Amino acid sequence: MIEFEGVGHRYGDHAVVDDVTLRLTEQRIAFVGANGSGKSTLARMINGLVHPTSGRVLVDGVDPARQGRTIRKRVGFVFTNPDSQIVMPTAGEDVAFSLRRKGIPAKERERRAAEMLARYGLAGYEEHPAHQLSGGQKQLLALCSMLVLDPDVLVCDEPTTLLDLRNKRRFVDRLEQLPQQIVLATHDLDLLDDFDRVVVLDEGRVAADDLPEPALQYYRKLIS
Ligand SMILES: Nc1ncnc2c1ncn2[C@@H]1O[C@H](COP(=O)(O)OP(=O)(O)OP(=O)(O)O)[C@@H](O)[C@H]1O
């Protein structure tokens, strides 16, 4: 369970998140809101990339602001731009690199990397230069490199912005099949029909928190 308890965040005098209290127990949760409404800031707090300036966040009782290393083993984060996440020259090496601290022999790391790539539509791409993959393939590679670590929770910050419509759909279909709890910050409202819960943010506050249909209806009115 992910808990936000009276969470606020300020940059200087500017409050970008203001008194957010949420208990997130559902499997598929989305944060939506206008540009600058605080989606990324909240999402980043779940794995300790950003710390609250007031209140606290707990993930299964662990505070990411205090136990960042522990939390990052349990919470995987997929960024908007996969180039910021891809660190190795080839796709296979990139996925295998994630496993470097697990004490797994090199051959087994390679095998697991190939298996993960195959599962996400990148079979045979082990030797492919990672930076020559298409935008959509890079998104999938970033996802593979995260999922190979088998996190409990997956936080995705606008992971579909570089994808065409078909790949957006595919990406979200794949997310939906995962056993992990997923928190997705997104502007792609059409992808959220099957989500369990949509939290609408407005100027750093929770403006609506509901099933996708009523929450998105509220949001569309808010921005019209
Ligand atoms: N490092 C920073 N320093 C100062 N202000 C920041 C910093 N990071 C974010 N902000 C501000 O915090 C506010 C919320 O930003 P955030 O990225 O959480 O919004 P968002 O809802 O994810 O927006 P978008 O949809 O544009 O990605 C914005 O006004 C942004 O300018």
From TrEMBL:
<dbReference type="InterPro" id="IPR015856">
    <property type="entry name" value="ABC_transpr_CbiO/EcfA_su"/>
</dbReference>
<keyword id="KW-0067">ATP-binding</keyword>
<dbReference type="GO" id="GO:0043190">
    <property type="term" value="C:ATP-binding cassette (ABC) transporter complex"/>
</dbReference>
<protein>
    <submittedName>
        <fullName>Biotin transport system ATP-binding protein</fullName>
        <ecNumber>3.6.3.-</ecNumber>
    </submittedName>
</protein>
<dbReference type="GO" id="GO:0042626">
    <property type="term" value="F:ATPase-coupled transmembrane transporter activity"/>
</dbReference>
<dbReference type="InterPro" id="IPR003593">
    <property type="entry name" value="AAA+_ATPase"/>
</dbReference>
<dbReference type="GO" id="GO:0016887">
    <property type="term" value="F:ATP hydrolysis activity"/>
</dbReference>
<dbReference type="InterPro" id="IPR003439">
    <property type="entry name" value="ABC_transporter-like_ATP-bd"/>
</dbReference>
<dbReference type="InterPro" id="IPR017871">
    <property type="entry name" value="ABC_transporter-like_CS"/>
</dbReference>
<keyword id="KW-0378">Hydrolase</keyword>
<dbReference type="InterPro" id="IPR027417">
    <property type="entry name" value="P-loop_NTPase"/>
</dbReference>
<dbReference type="GO" id="GO:0005524">
    <property type="term" value="F:ATP binding"/>
</dbReference>
<feature type="domain" description="ABC transporter">
    <location>
        <begin position="2"/>
        <end position="223"/>
    </location>
</feature>
<dbReference type="Pfam" id="PF00005">
    <property type="entry name" value="ABC_tran"/>
</dbReference>
<keyword id="KW-0547">Nucleotide-binding</keyword>
<dbReference type="InterPro" id="IPR050095">
    <property type="entry name" value="ECF_ABC_transporter_ATP-bd"/>
</dbReference>
<comment type="similarity">
    <text>Belongs to the ABC transporter superfamily.</text>
</comment>
<keyword id="KW-0813">Transport</keyword>
